[in-house]
Write a structure and sequence with these properties.
Blueprint: E1 2-9, H1 10-19, H2 23-27, H3 30-37, H4 43-60, E2 70-74, E3 80-84, E4 87-88, E5 92-98, E6 102-109
Antiparallel strand pairs: 1-6, 2-3, 3-4, 5-6
């Protein structure tokens, strides 16, 4: 089993986005941006997805995969999942959570 964990300060994501408006498009897919912006306060959602991308990257232990290659999606039952370069990774589980100040994500990948 491989594990990845990441925690992000919500205000860090908000501040980077305000200083560099292109940041969101460089890191997040159009679907992720739309999902986050649909919330009254989008920043905890952006931070959680950023943490998830980092956690997945760590769990995969791969070079050659950038944050933009990883996208966070929600299944029909509301559970989060991740795609890497548009494909599901077999055995990859993802959990994310956020509050007002911090967001955290854990990714687990079964290795056979």
């Amino acid at each position: 089993m491989e594990i990845g964990l990441d925690i992000v300060e919500v205000k860090r994501i908000r501040n980077v986005s305000r200083r560099s408006p292109a940041f969101l498009e460089r890191v997040f897919s159009a679907e992720e941006i739309a999902y986050c912006r649909a919330h009254k306060d989008p920043w905890p959602h952006f931070a959680a997805r950023f943490a998830a991308k980092e956690a997945v990257w760590k769990a995969l232990g791969r070079e050659g995969v950038g944050l933009r290659d990883i996208s966070v999606e929600r299944a029909g039952d509301g559970k989060p999942g991740a795609l890497v370069k548009g494909r599901r990774i077999r055995g990859l589980k993802l959990s994310l959570s956020h509050g007002r100040d911090y967001a955290v994500a854990v990714a687990l990948r079964e290795v056979r």
